[in-house]
Write a structure and sequence with these properties.
It is a single chain. This protein is mainly α. It is 68% helix and 0% strand. The longest helix has 28 residues. The mean pLDDT is 81.
Length: 96
């Protein structure tokens, strides 16, 4: 849907999905930490791993050569990764 309406729909669905994911992911991360005394360090490393791709990803657009490139592959890869993540999360039996 290459339109303003399509972008609003995407933003709403993605925002809702990310909010739900973030809340559940953070609770699960805290529950599975190996050492509660080093929780701050471990969560910091996790945050770095989560945001590093977001920090590095946009830099390939700085040269101006990619202005006409389609975002279709990025959405396709994102959907595949989201499905893979859902499968892995559903495989978690319980937290000790």
């Amino acid at each position: 849907m290459p339109s303003v309406t399509g972008m609003y729909l995407y933003a709403g669905i993605a925002g809702f999905g990310y909010g739900v994911y973030s809340a559940i992911d953070q609770a699960l991360n805290v529950d599975v930490l190996p050492n509660k005394e080093e929780a701050g360090k471990d969560l910091g490393i996790l945050n770095l791993a989560t945001t590093l791709g977001q920090a590095v990803g946009p830099h390939h657009h700085l040269d101006g050569k990619d202005r006409d490139r389609s975002f279709t592959p990025a959405f396709a890869i994102s959907i595949i990764m989201a499905v893979c993540a859902a499968v892995f999360v559903l495989r978690i039996q319980k937290v000790k």
